[in-house]
Structure formats: structure tokens, C-alpha cells
Fold:
Amino acid sequence: MEKESYATEEKVGMGAPPYDDPSRIVEDKGIRMGEAADMYGDLDTAEEYGYVTRGLKSRHIQFIALGGTIGTGLFLGIGRALTQAGPLSILLGYTFTGIAVFGMMQSLGEMATWLPLPGAIPQFCARYVDGALGFAVGWNNWYASAITLCAEISAASLVIQFWQGAVGINIAAWISIIIVVIICLNIFAVAIYGEAEFIFASVKIITIVGLLIMAICVDLGGSPTHDRIGFRYWKNPGAMELYISSDPNTGRFLGLFSTLVNAAFSYGGVEMVAVAAGEAENPRKNIPKAVRRVFWRILFFYVLGSLAIGVLVPYDDPNLLSAQASGSAGAAQSPWVIAIYRAGIPVLPSIINAVILTSASSSANAFLYTGSRYLYALAQNGQAPRFLLKCSKA
Structure:
């Protein structure tokens, strides 16, 4: 085994006699059981509880890094940030947050490459800082995953209401269907989850690239209206909107500051690469490759995406404001859809709504996965009930 041993005061299996020959266990029982025996300290405990399987291939990890947890924040939530703060503020807010996230991911990626454990983050905190920090971070991350999971399922069910045929159907039906689907994707082999995220992420990547190309064409006058927009909306109504305060300087600063909160929600889950490291094939090679791709995710999806929104839609657009005020369902609140309507392009709004639906479902799927791994990591640290250590043979 390549992992380093560490103090086992809080680990399951404390006091059990260590196995004599780790390489023999790997040869006889396989890498999975060898890792479990290394973690728990003896083979009997490892066989009792089992262990996760390294079933995520390189392409799964790469696409999880690129688009795994992109949900409604980038498609819907960014519209509220635009109306509150203006185009320059959302560009700066997403850029500043992206720089911080990139630095964090470089450090986290290095740790996950050296010690690829399932759940990872609570384990790192407990090992290298203090058990109390591991407890706090682990349970807080689990809580965040649980709450975001519910938010994404709720958003996905509301997005369906965008289509007229779904208006008369009770929203509980859509919520139930989405819950069943994401549980099925998570309850079986991790490879199934990886394939689902690979497909979901592919759809999101293709859509965002297409939207960026569309934004360039529309901005330069390539839409059916042949209106060359340029940076017109940065001059009228302006680049920065006042928020809370009527004082120009204070209001613009508060508007910029508010976009940091919105950006933090949109970037949430980017650390999922480290959480999945414990189930990745050849993590020494695949995790660094995936972490390097986070830069392109930040640049193309978030920074260029916020710039595109800012040049296509003014922050005082009446359709966007009325959709937010009335709580309109689905893509009606999306600034991307507002931009498409303004450009006079038919059909695309329904396509974008379908992508928002898949994005919300994919994000919910990802947060169910990460939340369960946080609980697993906490149980390994002795900070959660032991029954959470039990793994299925799949």
C-alpha cells in the first residue's frame, strides 16, 4: 500500500492486532480489501464492514471536475446577482471568487493526490490539524450537502413547470421522480454514478460552450434582429447597480460584495474531485489532471459566462425583474433565456430549460454522493455511528 500510516486513536479497529504482511492481503483479497485492512488495522474488521471500490475511471474524474456540481446557480441564480449589482460587479465577483477557489483547489488536489481517501476533507482536517476540526468540517459539509441536495431537487421540480403540459400536475410527483432517480444512481456501483455524471457534465459543457458562442454572435449583431449590442448596457443603465445604500460608493461596493455570496453558491461543490479521490482509479495520475482542469472550468463557465450575461442583458430588464418578482418557473428567470428572447431566437428557451433541469438533477446527484462520503469519512474518524461504515459488495 502506498498510504502512510498515522495515529489511530479515533479510528475503527483501535487495539486490533495489525496484519503481518499488507502485500499478501492485496494479493489474496484484492486492492479494495487491502485498503480496508490498512484503514481499520486488521483484516477481520475490514471484511466485516467492507470498503469502497475504485470504480471511477479517468474520464469520470475529469468530467466531474469540469461540470459535476454546476447546477442552477450558473443558469438561474446569476440573474438575481445581475439585477442586484450590475454586469461589472458580477464579473468581478465571479473572478475574485474563482481566484480563491483555484488556489484552494491546487492545495486540496495536492493533498488528495498524496492521500486519496473516500470523503477526504474531514480526514485531512482530523489528521493534520485536530480531531475537533475534522468533526466540525465533516458535519458542516454533510449539512451543506443535505440542504443543497434539497434545494436542487426543489429547483428541478420547479423548472419542469416552465412547460405548459406540466402546469396541472402536482409538484410532489416531480420531486418523487427525481428523488427515486438520484437514489438509484447512487445506491448501486459507483461506476454507474460516474457514467451518469459523465453524461450530465457533457450536456452542461456542450450547452455552456454553445451559449458562449451564441453570446458572441448576438453581441456582434449576428442575431435575427441584427442589432450590434457591444457594451451598450454597461453605459446605459450602467456597469454597477446600487444595492441597499443610495450612496454611490457604498451602494456599488455592497452590490459587488453581494455577488461574492452568489458566486460562492455557484462554485459550491468544486471540491468534489477530492471527495471522489478515494474511489478513483490510479489517483496519483488522474487527480492532478482533474484539478488542473478546474482552471478552465472557472475561466470558461463562470468568468466568461458572467461577462456574456453582462453584455447581453441590462440589469433593469423588465422581463427579468418581473420574472424574479413573480417567482416564475424555470427558465423564465434565466438571464440566458431573456437574452435569447431579446435576440428574437425561437425554440432555444425550451432547450435551455431542459439543460437547467438536467443541471439541477445532476447537482442533486452529486451532492447526494458527496454527503454520503462525508458521513463515511466521519465514521472512519470515530465521529459518526459505526453502521455508516458498512459498504455493499458492489
